[in-house]
Amino acid sequence: MSTEFDINTVRDHFPALKSGQIFFDNAGGSQVLDTVIESVRDYLANTNVQLGATYGTSLKSTFLYNEGYKTAAEYINATPEEVVIGSSTTQLFRNLSFALNFKAGDEIIISRIDHETNIDPWTDMAEHRGLVVKWWEPTNKESFRLEPKDLKPLLSSRTRMVTCTHASNVLGTINDIKAIAETVHDIPGALMCVDGVAYAPHRQIDVKELGVDFYAFSWYKVYGPHISMLYGRKESQKSVRFLGHYFNPSSTLQDKLALAGSSYELLHAIPAIVQYLGPDPEKMWQAIAAHEQKLAEVLLTYLTSRKDVRVYGERTADSKLRVPTISFTVEGKSSKAVVQAAERGSNLGFRWGHYYSHRLVTEILGLDNEGVIRVSMVHYNTVEEVEQLVEKLKEVLA
Asked: Which residues contact 105 (CB under 8 A, 6 or more apart)?
C-alpha cells in the first residue's frame, strides 16, 4: 500500500469491514487483509506438500516457508535464526519456559499487570524448579505505567529474568521497554522477556533498538492469520535448551522451540502483511499512530468529561503514551449491562471482562469478573464510527 494514509483505501483491504459490523474488539484479534486471505488459499491450492523433498512442488513450498521466516524476522530487525513461529504467544512462552536453563534459587520478576500469557508459564516454571518469584507492580495508579524505579528494588544478583508487557491489553499504556531492558541488564546475565501482543498492531517494532532478550506478539492481532512469533536474541539463546527430536538441527530458535508448530500456509501470509505497510513502513506506522490518536481523542474526550466514568490507564490520547485500547467503568452500573445495552439495536461490537489480565483487573484495579468495558480500536476504524459509539453511550448512560 502507498505510504499516504487514506482511510478509504485502508478499509478496502479488509473484506470483513463490508459486513456493516463496527469492530471495536480488535485487541482480541484484528480483521484480516484481503491479500492474507488470498495467500493462505494460494498455498493450500498450489503448494500444500511436505517440505524438504527434491521434486518441484516441495522445492517451491520450502522456498515459501523460508521466505516467510525471513520476512517475519526482518520485520522486527532480527535474523531468521532468532525467531520462531508458533500457534500462539501463549504456546511460545510456554515452550520457552520449558527450555530455559534456570536452577533452584534463581529469581524471576513478573509484572502483575500482564496478560496471563506472560505470567503463568513463569509461575509454573518457578513452582517446578524451585525458583523465587517477585511481583512487580506500578506505583502510579493513574497511568499504571511500569517504571524502572519500581523495578530496581526487586533486582538482585540472583535475578535471571524480568517479564512485562510492552502495552497492556486493558490499560493501553505504553511502557518504556528500552529503559526497562537497560535496567534489567545492569544485572549480569539477567534476561528481559516482553509480551508485545497489545503493542504490535499499532507501532513499528525494532527488537535491537529495544534491547530485549525475548519478545513475542501475535500476527492475528496484526491483520494476519492465527499465528504468533517469538524473538530470542542470539546471545540469549545460550540459556535455551533444545526441545526437538534428537536427530534434528538444534542451532536456531526455530530448531529449539518450534516443535513443528509453524503452520506452512499461515506463515506464507506474513509477506502479504509486510507488503501492505508499503515501501516505507516507518512512515506508514507514523501515519497509523496519528490516525489512531484522533480516534482515541474522540472517545477519551467524552469519557473524561463524565464524573461517573473512570478511565484506566493514560487519560490522554497522546500516541507516544498509549495505544487506542481504552478501558473504563461507570459508577453504579454493571460493565456487562452497559455493553449489552449499547450493542442492543446497533452494529457496535465491543466487550466487558478481564481479557485474561485477571490479576490486573481483580488485584490491582480491585474489580470483579465483570471487569472493565473495553473499546479497542485500530487504524481501519473511522472517526465516524467512534462518534457513533459516543452517541450510543450518551443514550445508555443518560
From this structure: 130, 131, 132, 158
**Which SS3 state, helix, strand or coil, does residue 69 take?**
helix
Distance (Å, whole) CA 33 – CA 272: 8
What residues have CB less than 8 Å from 244, skipping those under 6 apart?
250, 255, 256, 258, 259
Distance between CA atoms of residues 237 and 355, nearest Å: 31
Closest CA to 226 of 164, 275, 270: 270
- Given a contact cutoff of 8 angstroms between Cβ atoms, the answer to whether 323 and 292 are in contact is yes
For 217, the enclosing helix (H) or strand (E) is strand 214-218
Amino acid identity at 73: A
Strands 107-111 and 228-232: unpaired
CA pair distance 302, 84, nearest whole angstrom: 42
Q: Give me the phi and psi of 368, to 5 degrees please.
A: -85, -170
- Taking CA atoms, 338 is separated from 343, 360, 365, 395, in Å, by 9, 21, 19, 11
Q: Contact 191/160 with Cβ under 8 angstroms?
A: yes
Please answer whether residues 163 and 138 qualify as being in contact, where contact means their C-beta atoms are separated by less than 8 angstroms: no
pLDDT in tens, 214-243: 999 999 999 999 999 999 999 999 999 999
- Helix ranges restricted to H, 130-199: 148-151, 177-184
The rounded distance, in Å, linking the Cα atoms of 80 and 66 is: 9
8 Å CB contact between 162 and 184: yes
- What would the grid cell of residue 292 be? 489512531
Helix (H), strand (E) at residue 245: none
State pLDDT tens for residues 365-391: 999 989 999 999 999 999 999 999 999
Beta bridge pairs of residue 109: 134, 162
Cα dihedral 375/223/73/49 (nearest 10): 140
Handedness of CA 318, 231, 80, 47 (dihedral sign): negative
What's phi and psi for 251, nearest 5 deg?
Answer: -95, -25
pTM: 0.97
Residue 114: burial class (beta carbons within 10 Å; 0-12, 13-18, 19+): buried
